[in-house]
Amino acid sequence: MSAGLRLGRRDLAHGVGGLWLLLACLTIAVAGLSAVTSLSSAIESTIEGQARELLGGDLALSVAQRSATPAEREAIARLGTVRESVTLRSTAQIGGQTALVDLSGVDEGWPAAGRVTLASGRMPAAATDAAIGRELAERFSLRLGSPLRIGYGDYRVSGIIEKLPAPSGFALAPPVLVSRAGLDASRLVQPGSLYTSSYRVALPSGASYEGIGSSFQKRFPEGGWRVTDRSEAASGTRRFTERAGQMLLLIALGALGIGSIGIASAASAFAASRRSTIAILKVHGARTRDLALMLGTSVTLLALVAILLGTLVGATVPAIVGRAAADLLPVAPDPSPQWGALGRSAVFGLLVTLAAAWVPLARAARARPAAVLRGDVDEGSPDRRDLLVPLLAAAAVSALAILTSGNEAVTAATIAGGVALAFLFAGAGKLLALAARRLGSRGGPVARLGLAALHRPGAATVRLSVALGLGLALLVALAGIGGSVRAELAGNIPAKAPALFMLDIPATEEARFRDLAARELPGADLRLVPSLRGPVTALNGQPVSALKAIPEGAWILRGDRGLTFARELPEANQVVEGEWWPADYAGPPLVSLDIEAARALGLKIGDTMTIAVLGSPIEARIASFRTIDWRSLGFNFAIIFAPGTLEQAPYTLMATASPERGASTLGFERALAAGLPMVSTIRVSDVVAQVTTILEGLDNAIRLATLVAIVIGVTVLAGAVAATRRTRTRESVLLKLVGATRAQVLAAQGIEFAAMAGGIVTLAFVTGTAAAYGVVTWLFELPFLPDWPSLLTLPLAGMAVAVLTALVAAWPALRARPATALRSI
């Protein structure tokens, strides 16, 4: 064993000095980071491990508003075992009440792979059988044998569905499965109806699914086929998990950054406690590198213990979340340890410890014995050579965070923003110290003592400013964002949105629909637009299937898109480039496109898009780009055709109904279900409630992650104050010897902490509020409507917690007895 390691082992036997702060900060930070990364990895692991079962096959081929042609069916049948389903949204009538459902008519033996998990009962066999989702059964107290009506068909519940294959992972409405004969009995699949035909394929054993889907699309390029293979199973869940995980990861990294300040403070306190030992060892011939190894051994061992504890906590999170939030998650997280995520979290912890602790330990190891033994407390400036390792470690942390994140640009921007904020709060701390120096001669002796503590040698004003400021700014920003989103969901959206959306209204029944609405909802604002669906199959002649990857933001290329045609520019739309066509336009096909989608795809006016409508390709020239106010919650289509192209295709109508304030829509819904059962009715309140539930769950997770950052900030504050206990004890004793009371000493320290916390808390509130305003208004394009009373309590609560924590940490120094303390100083 080398001399440095032997010295480190003996040094640890005498205690860890101030390293308890390193242990606390690093444990909490690594626990938060490993929890976030483990949960995301566990969900991804479940999806990858059960991809075939989640998809219902190795491959799913789907097409809108039609079935496969004989040639397409033959090509699909050659691939393997095939099971077909036809899915559309419909309204179920249940004992005088109505509910939106996802109705699917499935082949016998559906799906091709995996199975439908039933809580009770059996899959539909007869044309009158229906297996329904558990949430629908619970909502309407349905049991096996209960009747319900969908379209023109009467059914009885044959089974209660627990889980079933779903390509996206998320569903707006509960599922209802019937046989193909049962679907025919509903008479809902008509020309122009918005339905999707899906063909799930189980490939022969050992066959690879890669490339099969794209080959099929190339063979039938004009068919408008969408291909989903096992690698894209539960795509909606994947995207949601990636977005949520990205946000939580950034917060966890922020907490780790705050923790690095505590690690640096702990290393400084530990090094200071070993200054005399180092000086004595140097006098007896110890080498600097051996002393550095002695200090590094203690820090490394404590860091490894902290990382072990943190990763143990993170390893349990997937299992805990899986049990606690089973009903909210489309897939259950894999409860086994996610070794890759835990390993990355450990590496993050080691690199951050290296970056934060290197300088104080290196400086202490090189301290001159003469200066230490004379009692000098000034540690001097760090050697420039000491900065190389911390800078490399910090760069490695940033690179690892960027490379392992789902969005490199966002992560890099967030890290840059965090560093900028850290410098901002560090500068604010220096300004506070400078202001305290300038104001030091004013006020009474107690106030002067309190202010002097902010700029005395060894004061932790800058470090505490960064830790407290970053944590509180993050909390304020998230509270402002969450409050604005909740206000929009709870107030503005219900106030502006129509009460009902109605789909699949036959164009031939428009007059009857209007008469029914006039009778049941007198005075309601009724709006109808034509509706079709179809995928974008080519851009400027290049097939979408040939694209290596769909660009971020190009959501119009993902699956079928809602289509319409219009003579006049719709409300909540504004042409920003190009021109809207004349109302009497008659010419080659033209389309108007959402400007954001156009930018994502790099399109310009005059480019062409090919869209498959009922299997027929239509190439249209882009005439204009539009901005769309999606918050209007009216009929907003990303793609609108000019007149003269789609009128001859079989289409249905979509409608919105906005009744007079206080008017009930239940009578209209019942009359609509009885008179026009093919029409699907969506209550906006139900959609808002579902979205609110998802967002509240995400908001709670974000708040919990932010709480970790706040806890670390408070720990750093307490640790930094405790690290100065020796100095504070000496000052307290000297003040008492010259006549100061304990209350006066306490008041002086209270002024010190209140002055520091007050300035930093104010700056944190301003920066957090500004960040929330930018995200809400520019990114989300929502009005900034936070819960101001709750938002304003955050800085006040933050200041109170900071002052109270600091006073508690300083209390042992305040109650020291002069005689006892003087003997130990």
Structure description:
- The two termini are about 35 Å apart.
- Strand 2 (about 80-95) and strand 3 (about 95-105) form a beta hairpin.
- This protein has four domains: about 1-50 and about 240-405, no CATH class; about 50-230, no CATH class; about 420-500 and about 685-825, no CATH class; about 525-660, no CATH class.
- The chain contains 24 helices and 22 strands.
- Helix 16 (about 460-495) runs antiparallel to helix 20 (about 685-725).
- The mean pLDDT is about 80.
- The radius of gyration is 33 Å and the shape is elongated.
- Strands 11, 12, 13, 14, 15, 16, 17, 18, 19, 20, 21 and 22 form a twelve-stranded mixed β-sheet that branches.
- With about 800 residues, it is an alpha+beta fold.
- The chain is about 55% helix and about 15% strand.
- The longest helix is centred in the C-terminal third of the chain and has 40 residues, at about 685-725.
- It comes from Sphingomonas kaistensis.
- It is a multi-pass membrane protein.
- InterPro entries: ABC3_permease_C, MacB_PCD, Membrane_comp_ABC_pdt.
Task: Supply the key terms.
single chain; 825 residues; alpha+beta; twelve-stranded mixed β-sheet; six-stranded mixed β-barrel; 24 helices; 53% helix; transmembrane helix; Putative ABC transport system permease protein; Membrane_comp_ABC_pdt
